[in-house]
Amino acid sequence: MARTPSNMLALGTVAPNFNLLDTTTDTFIALDSCKGEKGTVIAFICNHCPFVIHVNPELVKIANDYKSKGFNFVAISSNDVINYPQDAPNLMAKVAIENKYSFPYLYDESQEIAKAYDAACTPDFYLFNSDLKLVYRGQLDDSRPGNGIPLNGRDLRNALDALYKGELINPEQKPSIGCNIKWK
Fold it and tell me: Structural domain tally of the chain?
């Protein structure tokens, strides 16, 4: 299991636009159409990564907990599906249904969006404010497969809570750790 950290995109960066295939609805979704009133979480994930599989239950719980507070969530997979066919769009849709994703699961076939976000690993989390400026990037929490630390989403939840309340988000942010994005 590779242990690749986030690249930690600069805070204040404006979210790069996208228009990607939503594998669950077979329609294209642009960033503007899925932007949250209070903020938007963009998560780079994939189907097969053990780190993503580990955090999936908490990611779904957080998305459900914060939707009513004006936050939208979007997941993007940018993996090379030729060499990693388990991450193909038809299987992405299946994973989204099995895990009860309440958010779009988008396919970045060209990998240009992952590059625009400087995404490095799965999972890699980004929280943008209502102006689509980056206010948090990094880990969900300290839990990793096999480390015995329970999932609680503390880091991302703390950032979401601070943004919701209009408070300062701690700029000391830990990178996510996961499998590297499978580049072509």
Answer: 1
- Cβ 126 vs Cβ 120: under 8 Å: no
pLDDT, tens digit (0-9, with 9 covering 90-100), for 7-33: 999 999 999 999 999 999 999 999 999
13 is in which domain, residue-wise? Answer: 4-180
For β-strands 121-122 and 177-180, DSSP reports them as antiparallel
Does the CA dihedral 67-163-142-47 come out positive or negative? positive
How many CB atoms sit inside 10 A of residue 60's CB? 17
Strand, coil or helix: 44:
strand
What SS3 state is found at 73? strand
- The total of other beta-carbon atoms located within 10 Å of residue 85's CB is 13
- Cα–Cα dist 126/74, whole Å: 10
